[in-house]
């Protein structure tokens, strides 16, 4: 009997739901689920959540406390539906503050543990700035696992591997968006997709040097990008694209496979000045990182406004 592409993908890649939609998670049965401020905002706007959100908001000490309460509330619901990780994001407002990121990450883990969800189930999502990666390195030493997001460059990926983070989320579709905007007539289909090329390069580098950090492609614009990365460690996919894969009965070939024996000499770790210089040289990564932080904060402010109204 023919298998749909989603079923085939699950045999070679851990499928992660990129959503805060509980019903979508029930339908597609992913191993993990990941959220961000935009997805939490979408979930918070559901009418059936209003009463519970109002209760959480009124019992919070301030708006930041309320935002984290909502994120953990939704994360706990998701943890009942998936057997693996749930990713919860530290406020993008803290993207350039290592100490504040550490404090917020520890607080999120404590909230989960009070709700009976162990830290081994949670990935703390942090923007892939120098400060964020530095915080992640310390959190990993404390047994708090991290997911470094808003990752657009090999430089960021290398620094994350140096720091020993659990997982990175390179953004495929947003890389493609940048190149399309700067060269609208170019052919970026199939293997020409620069987002796909970026993830393949990172994956092959990690496997070739024996890094344990998991590569999870994210931010897909079309099903073809997902199919081009079949075999990647993890892929986090929106409900719309999960549905498209579930409806397609064609064969899905594997595109990525771990290499044989890893090389024994990884490159020297970046120091801060080298990292900042390499990022400065990469206009796409610099611009998309800044834009991504602004976008997440835009949606977080909307969530803060919503919870502020409910606190009254």
- Strand neighbour order, sheet with most strands: 1-2-3-4-5-6-7-8
The name of the CATH topology is TIM Barrel
Q: What are the segments in which pLDDT stays under 50 over at least 5 consecutive residues? A: none
Number of helices: 14
How would you sum up the global shape? globular
CATH H-level superfamily title = Aldolase class I
Instruction: Give the CATH level 1 class.
Output: Alpha Beta
Provide mean pLDDT, rounded.
94
The figure for the number of domains is 1
Largest sheet: 8 strands, parallel, barrel
Structure description:
Its EC number is 2.2.1.2. This protein has a single domain, classed as TIM Barrel (Alpha-Beta Barrel), CATH 3.20.20. Helix 6 links the parallel strand 3 and strand 4. It is α/β, with parallel strands linked by helices and 312 residues long. Strands 1-2-3-4-5-6-7-8 form an 8-stranded parallel beta barrel, surrounded by 8 helices. The mean pLDDT is 94. The longest helix has 29 residues. It is globular. Helix 4 crosses helix 5, helix 6 packs across helix 7 and helix 8 packs parallel to helix 10.
């Amino acid at each position: 009997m023919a298998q749909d592409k989603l079923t085939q993908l699950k045999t070679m890649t851990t499928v992660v739901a990129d959503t805060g939609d509980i019903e979508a998670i029930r339908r597609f049965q992913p191993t993990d689920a990941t959220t961000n401020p935009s997805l939490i905002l979408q979930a918070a706007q559901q009418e059936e959540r209003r009463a519970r959100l109002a209760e959480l908001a009124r019992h919070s000490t301030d708006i930041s406390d309320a935002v984290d309460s909502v994120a953990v509330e939704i994360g706990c619901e998701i943890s009942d539906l998936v057997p693996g990780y749930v990713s919860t994001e530290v406020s993008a407002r803290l993207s350039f503050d290592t100490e504040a990121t550490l404090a917020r990450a520890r607080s999120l883990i404590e909230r989960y543990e009070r709700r009976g969800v162990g830290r081994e189930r949670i990935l703390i999502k942090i923007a892939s700035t120098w400060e964020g990666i530095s915080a992640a390195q310390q959190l990993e030493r404390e047994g708090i696992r991290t997911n470094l997001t808003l990752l657009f460059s090999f430089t960021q990926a290398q620094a994350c591997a140096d720091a020993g983070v659990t997982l990175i989320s390179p953004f495929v579709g947003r890389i493609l968006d940048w190149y399309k905007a700067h060269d609208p007539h170019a052919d970026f289909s199939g293997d020409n997709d620069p987002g796909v090329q970026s993830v393949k390069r990172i994956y092959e580098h990690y496997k070739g040097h024996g890094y344990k950090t998991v590569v999870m492609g994210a931010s897909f614009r079309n099903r073809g990008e997902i199919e081009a990365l079949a075999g990647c460690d993890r892929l986090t996919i929106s409900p719309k694209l999960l549905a498209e894969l579930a409806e397609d009965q064609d064969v899905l070939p594997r595109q990525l496979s771990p290499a044989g024996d890893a090389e024994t000499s990884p490159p020297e770790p970046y120091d801060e000045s080298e990292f900042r210089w390499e990022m400065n040289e990469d206009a796409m990564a610099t611009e998309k990182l800044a834009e991504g932080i602004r976008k997440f904060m835009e949606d977080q402010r909307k969530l803060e406004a919503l919870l502020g109204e409910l606190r009254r």
